[in-house]
Amino acid sequence: MSLFRGVMAAFVLAATVAPAAADITGFIGSATSPSSRLVRGVALGAGLVVLAFEFEYADAIEDDSGAPSLRTGMGNVLVQTPVPIHRFQPYLTTGAGGYRERLGTSSETNFGINNGGGVKITLAGPLRVRLDYRVFSLRGSARVSPVHRFYAGANLAF
Q1: 38-86: per-residue pLDDT in tens?
Q2: Rounded to whole angstroms, how far apart are CA atoms 28 and 151?
Q3: Rounded to an integer, what distance in angstroms lies between the CA atom of residue 81 and that of residue 4?
Q4: Distance between CA atoms of 19 and 47, rounded to whole angstroms?
Q5: What is the C-alpha R_g of the chain?
Q6: Using CA atoms, how far apart are residues 119 and 129, in angstroms rounded to an integer?
Q7: Is the distance from CB of 25 to CB of 153 less than 8 angstroms?
Q8: Nearest alpha carbon to residue 83 among 129, 148, 130, 16
Q9: Residue whose C-alpha is closest to residue 157's, from 4, 43, 1
C-alpha cells in the first residue's frame, strides 16, 4: 500500500510541475562602495520551478569622489520559492563572471563572484517588481572590493 501511495504522490507532483519559465529585468539602483553611485543594467533568466539561471549586465558610473566605474557581466544561479507567496517570490543567488573597473585612465579587467538575494513582487499578470541586493568580490587589482549593490527593476515573465 505504501508503494502505491509513493507512486501516486510522484504522479501528482509530476503533473503539477510548472513548465520552464523565463523573465527579463531592466533595473536601476546604487553601487554603494566606496560611495553611492548610479548603476543600471539588464538581467535575462530562465528556470524550472525552484532553480533558475540568469545572465546580467550592469554598469555603475564613475563619480567625482574617486569611485571608479564598474561594468559586470555575470552568470548566476537562483534558488527561489516555486510559486509566489502572497505575491512575493524570494530568492537567493550566487554567480561569477567578468568585470571592468575604470577610474580616469587606469583600468582593471578580471574575474569576480557575487552573492545576494531578493524578491520578485507580482503586480499584475506577468509584470513584477524586482528588488535585489548583491555583494561583488572582485579578483585582481580592483580599487574597490567588495562592492555592494542594491537595485529595483521592472520584471516581465514570459
Answers
A1: 999 999 999 998 999 999 999 999 988 889 999 999 999 999 999 999 9
A2: 6
A3: 28
A4: 9
A5: 19
A6: 8
A7: yes
A8: 16
A9: 43
In whole angstroms, what is the distance from residue 89 CA to residue 99 CA? Answer: 28
Cell digits for 22?
Answer: 523565463
**Structural domains in the chain, sorted by start:** 19-157 (2.40.160.20)
Whole-structure pTM value: 0.85
The three state secondary structure string of the chain is: CHHHHHHHHHHHHHHHCCCCEEEEEEEEEEECCCCCEEEEEEEEEEEECCEEEEEEEEEECCCCCCCCEEEEEEEEEEEECCCCECCEEEEEEEEEEEEEEEECCEEEEEEEEEEEEEEEEEEECCEEEEEEEEEEEECCCCCCCCEEEEEEEEEEEC
Do the beta carbons of residue 101 and residue 143 sit within 8 Å?
yes
